[in-house]
Amino acid sequence: MAKTGEDLFKNIVSHCKEYGFIFQSSEIYDGLAAVYDYGQYGSTLKNNIRDFWMRSMVQVNENIVGIDSAIFMHPTTWKASGHVDAFNDPLIDNKDSKKRYRADVLIEDHIAKIEGKIDKEVAKAAKRFGDSFDRDQFIATNTRVLEYHNKIIEIQNSMRTSLDSGDLEALRQLILDLEIVCPVSGSRNWTEVRQFNLMFSTQMGSVSEDSNTLYLRPETAQGIFVNFLNVQKTGRMKIPFGIAQTGKAFRNEIVARQFIFRMREFEQMEMQFFVKPGTELDWYQFWKDKRMAWHRALGFKAGKHRYHDHIKLAHYANAACDIEFEFPFGFKELEGIHSRTDFDLKAHEKYSGKKLQYFDPELNESYVPYVVETSIGLDRMFLAILSDAYAEEQLEDGSERVVLNLPAFLSPVKVAVLPLIKKDGLPEKARELMDNLKYDHLCQYDEKDSIGKRYRRQDAIGTPFCITVDHQTLEDGTVTIRYRDNMNQERIASSNVNDIVKEKVSISKALQQL
Ligand code: GAP
């Protein structure tokens, strides 16, 4: 039976390590929590995803350009953006275990337990009533389920109110009232709740003074905002236009779990789209649709994405939503789309004393543009693609294979060239073919073990095509091409291999489908 949830996730994580996709950072020193290294296949897959995102922004859209701004920025940037004062998590420590938790996460975990109770009631009733069971009606009418549901709403409301008003004492009281215990010590011996800023800081130069304190950027977006006029003027950009960039971001996440889903050092792919004030909500809808279409064009299984519209908006936004993906551990945020008004540019105008305005030749006037932002985590996108592609298959002959059904244009290795045996001139012929292919594609030559084992190795890293060179190749110049997804094999002229592979791994085809 196909694995799901935690079991599936565990297998995916070990597959990533076993096949050179992702390693724990500094593993020989027992690792560094929530920091990961991408191995030989992982880094190539990640590069391919980044490249595809960048091309779908700047190559396909004439009015979007790409930049690469520095990780270090003037410290006032983060004052203007609000990160110094408000990029905080509420933390609480357990005095017995000395473990630190995010107060809101402790409460959310408690809510998840109540949700688990609802699921149990539903499962019990489904068993009792069999085919005649109406789930929606049961949830809407069963007294116990309704009690649980109301409790959840009550907890959520009270947490929201405490967080929004910054009332940390009320947040702590909620934890006490709910009798939440430390998962490690089992005790309710909690400290006060404190706000903890998520930015990492470091010193520039040799003197350790406050004025030399720099932050490692917690988002790439601010590098775009501060370059808005540089790009607009030098690129002679007309509104509406976008600036895109990819790059590292750093957050001192306290609850860092679920592998590369929440990391302390990660990569973002962000695009700020500058528009005329008053048109921002139309552009917000445009980018909301466009980004969902981008995800779906990658061939994910149906029903894997959904929107989560934000009801409560941040003070700078007038519309916001997430695109959520169904990871093995449930639906979670993959990308955010935010209509950020003119908040950031105005704040940078205020703190820098420089005008950040666009002269609109049609209106013959200057204004601070409004911004619609699309922001996606590259590592989360990697995890979404990998977990959707990962399959443990039971084959007709009773054997099993683990395969990564990656979109061919994203696969790290595109073609494997395999001489059937290690003699009779087959390796030399295979090397010739390899030399023909390697300038166009990342190829792998493999002559070790049985052909079956070699196919499995390529399936496990998602190589879409294996080319086998055998004795017939020496006679008539044909080879076998084996397709990863259906394992079918065909005999083709070896002179056609490059054209066939080129057509199937073409990134331009993928871009045309957007
Ligand atoms: N500029 C807007 C911004 O940074 P965000 O919702 O904080 O918004 C955007 O982050 C995206 O970055 C998220 O949707 C997620 O994919 C990714 N992301 C955020 N924190 C992350 C973390 N700690 N580890 C991995 N990815 C993260």
Output the CATH class name of the largest domain: Alpha Beta
Summing up helix and strand content along with how strands pair, one would put the structural category as: alpha+beta
Bound molecules: glycyl-adenosine-5'-phosphate
- Main sheet specs: 7 strands, mixed
**Can you tell me the overall shape?**
globular
CATH level-two architecture of the largest domain: 2-Layer Sandwich
Specify the number of helices.
Answer: 18
Helix content: 25-40%
As a percent range, the share of strand residues is 15-25%
Describe the structure in brief.
The protein is an alpha+beta fold and 514 residues long. It folds into three domains: 213 residues, Bira Bifunctional Protein, Domain 2 (BirA Bifunctional Protein, domain 2, 2-Layer Sandwich); 107 residues, Herpes Virus-1 (2-Layer Sandwich); 114 residues, Anticodon-binding domain (Rossmann fold, 3-Layer(aba) Sandwich). 40% of the residues lie in helices and 24% in strands.
Question: Explain this structure to me?
Answer:
The chain is an alpha+beta fold and 514 residues long. It contains 18 helices and 23 strands. A 7-stranded mixed sheet has the order 3-9-10-16-13-12-11. The longest helix is centred in the N-terminal third of the chain and has 27 residues, at 103-129. It binds glycyl-adenosine-5'-phosphate. Glycyl-adenosine-5'-phosphate is lined by residues 219, 221, 251, 253, 262-263, 266, 268, 270, 333-336, 373, 375-377, 379-380.
List keywords for this structure.
514 residues, alpha+beta, BirA Bifunctional Protein, domain 2, Herpes Virus-1, Rossmann fold, 3 domains, 7-stranded mixed β-sheet, 5-stranded mixed β-sheet, 23 strands, binds glycyl-adenosine-5'-phosphate
